[in-house]
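@channel anyone free to eyeball this complex?
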Amino acid sequence: MSKVTKILDGKYEVLGVKPGPIGTFMGIVDLSKIDEATAERLVARGSSYLRKAKPSGKKIKDKEEAIS
Amino acid sequence: MNLFDYTGQIYLEESAALNTEVCIADYFDVETFPALPDLTAGTTNSDYVDLAAATFTMKTGKKFHKFSATLERNSLTTTLEGPRGAKSFMNMLTIARSGADKELVGFLRANRNRKLVVAFKFLGATQYCFLGYNELPAEVDSGGIEVGAEISGEKVTNFVVRSIFYPPMYIDEVPLTEAV
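replying in thread with the prediction:
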């Protein structure tokens, strides 16, 4: 599972599958239609198909420059 | 494989019956099956059947497909078969949908001889169970269409999926969207 697709404005990443329905502990959840609260529940539960995106290096650098 | 206590925890949501949604994949669409438990490393009974976050890696463009059955029609029978000292599991999952339209008849025609992997949930459960594994695919054992003569009679399409050797294995998630 290598290919990653960003969802929810890049805040979360779908792993190895197209953003679409996954059978989960909550029932069938469509990763292309979920909100952040649902994404957070799935990530907290250790979903194999969804993870939180790491902040990009550029954004961190921009933040650091803004602070200094 | 060690012997552990069974403490008989009570689950207040315990119930018979299966969920109506069943997930069905072609055995040959699975690229890699989830790893089975390490039988030397278990520390509880459930460790021998719970694959937790392990995943089915499907071939590119392939996925599990949904089959919407009818409530209180699906059922599971798992039995231990074989001679003393060599017992093996045999699992029979009955999937039934009220009706006998061309979609259902076509489904039977298309899949009656297919090697399968089938995932389902016990009613109220959070994890899926699945039948069919690498080199041990599940297959349709029997099935058909029943239409009663009277309007008060039965009208149902059903098929029974059979798998052997392993018990139903538990897994957290099933991909119903195409692998990329």
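from a first look: The mean pLDDT of chain A is 88.
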